[in-house]
Amino acid sequence: MTRGRTNGHGLGARTAATAAVGLLALATLATGCKVERVGAPEPTTLPTRTSPRPTDDAKPGSTPASPAATASRTPGARPSPPPSTLMAVGDRSTRVRELQARLRQIGHFGRGPTGYYGTTTAASVRSFQGRRGLPRTGRTDTVTWERLLAMTRRPTAGELDPPVAGAEAAKPDARCLQGRVLCVDKNSRTLSWMVDGRVLSSMDVRFGSQYTPTREGTFSVYWKSRHHVSTLYGSPMPYAMFFSGGQAVHYSPDFAARGYDGASHGCVNVRDEGKIASLFGQVRSGDKVVIHR
Q1: pLDDT tens digits, residue range 233-243?
Q2: 159 touches 166 (CB < 8 A)
Q3: Could you tell me which of 211, 85, 215, 102 has the C-alpha nearest to residue 148?
Q4: For residues 11 and 9, what is the distance between their CA atoms, to the nearest angstrom?
Q5: Strand spans (E) along the chain
Q6: CB 218, CB 184: distance < 8 Å
Q7: 170, 164 in Cβ contact below 8 A?
Q8: Cα–Cα nearest to 245, from 226, 260, 230
């Protein structure tokens, strides 16, 4: 009887101890505490990074690009700007004269260069552009000009200033549109005989040098002299039509022989004797003379 009680008491004590340990373990798990040694190093395992959110241009199922890769991307190439226009209708310059001479070399301009970009020049440029697969704008842009330069050589002085048959005269000055007018354009170097705004004939001309310039403005023919000889220089001035002091429109054998390598002493020189002879017969004293740029 005495042993039975002792064994029961010992069993009860062990049972109570086991129960206490279980309660302590449950309390530890519930509070989330972790037993660590004092002074122990921090854990080396880093928390797992979450993947970046895909960008708008990510394809379904593709791996999102990293932020560094996204930042290093360069924007797509921009479209090339349209070619800029160098020359167009209405322009007057030595460059236009070169354009015409180069077009003439390859059969796209059938007249002598005048330096004026008129409708004939625009049509020639369109023809050239069409044969080369370029937009047929009629304007000389950078692409058209570079293509033309590659196909032609630098024009000679004779090609730039040949005798002009049927010169492409510039758009007439407003002062030339009424009455009977000798309309002289210094830029295109042409003289147009006009009656009531209509061009009856046109011819190439040259002018005085920088030391003896041809006057500009509106004048009138005050004297005609068929076989005139200059009293100042002793040079012949056939078919002279005087408009301002000693300055006149007349035929120049020197112009016919040397072209634009020479210059007058202020007169308007005409190169084609046949044309000036015909003009001399039509012009009357009092007819208007307009010289402009």
Answers
A1: 888 999 999 99
A2: no
A3: 102
A4: 6
A5: 85-87, 140-141, 180-185, 190-195, 198-206, 217-220, 223-229, 236-244, 247-251, 268-270, 288-292
A6: no
A7: no
A8: 230
The pLDDT tens digits for 31-60 are 443 334 434 444 444 444 443 343 333 333
Q: Regarding predicted confidence, which is higher, 129 or 11? A: 129
CA angle 195, 198, 203 (to 5 degrees): 85
Q: Which amino acid is at 265?
A: H
User: DSSP labels for 232-256?
Assistant: TT--EEEEEEEEETTEEEEE-HHHH
The dihedral over CA atoms of 115, 119, 123, 128, expressed in degrees to the nearest 10, equals 20
- Cβ atoms of 222 and 285 within 8 Å: the answer is yes
User: Residue written as tokens 């379904």?
Assistant: 60
pLDDT over 80 at 72, yes or no: no
- Report the share of the chain in percent with pLDDT over 90: 53
The pair of three-digit structure tokens given for residue 228, joined into one six-digit string: 């005139």
For CA atoms 59, 62, 66, 68, the dihedral sign is negative
Number of Cβ within 10 Å of residue 269's Cβ equals 27
The interaxial angle of helices 94-105 and 142-151, nearest 10 deg, is 50
pLDDT of residue 15: 53
167: left (phi over 0), alpha (psi -120 to 50) or beta: beta
The Cα–Cα gap between 112 and 31 comes to 105
H-helix or E-strand spanning residue 12: helix 2-31
Q: Is the pLDDT of residue 116 over 60?
A: yes
Give dist(CA 14, CA 17) in Å, integer: 5
282 backbone dihedrals φ, ψ, rounded to 5°: -95, -35
pTM value is: 0.47
**What is the chain's mean pLDDT, rounded?**
79
Report percent pLDDT > 70 for the chain. Answer: 70
